[in-house]
Request: fold
Amino acid sequence: MATASNIYLFSRAIRTGKTTELTGWCKGKNAAGILTPNVEGRRVLLDIATGNQHMLELQIRLECSISIGRFHFDNEVFRIGRDILLQAKCNSPEWLVVDEVGPLEIKRREGLEPALGAIVEHYKRSGSNLLLVVRDSLLEEVVRHYNLENSVVIHHLNDIP
Reply:
């Protein structure tokens, strides 16, 4: 049985270029999952495997949205993200990337949950690699929430052994 050492937590402060660094790092790797880059000032959900983009951040609150702070997100796009992650897990890429694990998942069990919890549990037993993006202010809470005490915390992707 694998230990959680195949689970990496890529953690830095917000707005320090984590997604940008991750976008370049994924190129040329056997990676799947999701990225959430800013496109024209709004977050999109990007399927790493296909390159398909879905507008995640809404400009106004709608019936289909999930709101946290000043941000409004399309719940249907989160469903697409959950489906992308679950499908990617089944395809066993060398790296499954989740950008990012945030307050919606750990405080409200929304966003990428419940798929994310199932994926984390799967990767605790798998030999494949899981890379979770976590802002530094939530790192300890994410470690506790998903029981990731044996995971590897990195601050730059070139720190991956």
Remarks:
- The first strand starts at residue 7 and ends at 12.
- Residues 30 and 68 are 33 Å apart (CA to CA).
- The two ends are 20 Å apart (CA to CA).
